Amino acid sequence: MAGLAKAALAGDVRAAAQLMRDLDDRQPGALQELRELYPATGRAYVLGVTGNPGTGKSTVVDWLIERYRRQGQRVGVVAIDPTSPFSGGAILGDRIRMQRHSTDDGVFIRSLATRGHLGGLSRSTHDVVTVLDAMGNDVVIIETVGVGQDEVEVVAAAHTSIVITVPGLGDEVQAIKAGILEIADILVVNKAERDGADRTVRDLQGMLELRPREAPTVEVLRTVATRGEGIDELCAAIERHHAGVGAAQAAARRRQRAFAEVRDALRERLLEAAAAAAGPGGLEAIAAEVAARRTDPYSAAERLLAALRGTDPPRGAGGC
Q1: Most buried residue among 81, 245, 253, 289 by CB atoms closer than 10 A?
Q2: Does one domain contain both 32 and 46?
Q3: What is the pLDDT of residues 220-239, one digit of tens each?
């Protein structure tokens, strides 16, 4: 087994952190290390926490960490943050709110920058979850970046998806049209001490009544995360969802997560191969050709695909 993978399995936190960084930076050899780790995964329970910016996701996650540690469970956290326009790294806003766990050996928190990846996750999210799982964490929490109504990729990465909202984000029409709510296993109305919390709960319950009759039950809970209120009820709801998922549904979710991992890995490899096939200047040179209207993006893509296949591009595909 390769060095970092072996050390991470033995509980070496420094080695695991280095491997996560190498994976996020796409360093040579990091994927081979990940291949070595993969057979040791599949034991952690993965929670996805998502919602609009400002709903209190990080504060809820902070309390979840506290509750799971009180039970003696090891917790890994993947906090997806916006990309810094200066360094290209993660703006560590989410991690700052979890500082009280920074000296706890049973908690590992890793921030990842989105780096242009859509859907609320980072391009390395699945890879980092794999490392945290292999390290022996009992629970892995993914906190998404908070991008709005299309932040739905987390459902493919988690066993239980928690969507957090707050009063005052909109009327029942907003609740119905927000695709982010349709992926929830548990809905949480945070900052429930505010005016309008009762209406928000009613709106969400009304939305759930529009779902097909055979759709799984989704609980709607209230929390005041700044005071830790409602967190015990949330933990109990997570346990009920975990226990209530049947064998067929659990198998379907495993396939969904595997599909997402294969898709993301394939997407990365295809982009790398296309960049290599683009020749001098890479994809940036092709983008310059498109910007100058000397070709179009569709023909450029066809030519790159043809180069990957070793075939001639389709007739009509312009030069790039």
Answers
A1: 81
A2: no
A3: 999 999 999 999 999 999 99
Please tell me whether residue 272 adopts helix, strand or coil conformation.
Answer: helix
What's at 73, amino acid-wise?
Q
Let me know whether 158 and 52 are in one domain: yes
Whether residues 45 and 170 share a domain: the answer is: yes
140 pLDDT exceeds 60?
yes
| Whether residue 204 sits in one domain with residue 123 | yes
Buried b (16+ CB within 10 A) or exposed e, 96-108: ebbeebeeeeebb
Helix H or strand E encompassing 143: strand 139-143
Q: Are residues 127 and 211 in the same domain?
A: yes
Please choose, from the candidates 223, 229, 234, 187, the residue with its C-alpha nearest in 3D space to the C-alpha of residue 206.
187
Q: Indicate whether 65 and 209 sit together in one domain.
A: yes
Q: How confident is the model at residue 85 (pLDDT cuts 50, 70, 90)?
A: very low
Give the amino acid at 143: E
Name the pairing type of β-strands 45-51 and 160-165: parallel
Helix (H) or strand (E) holding 64: helix 57-70
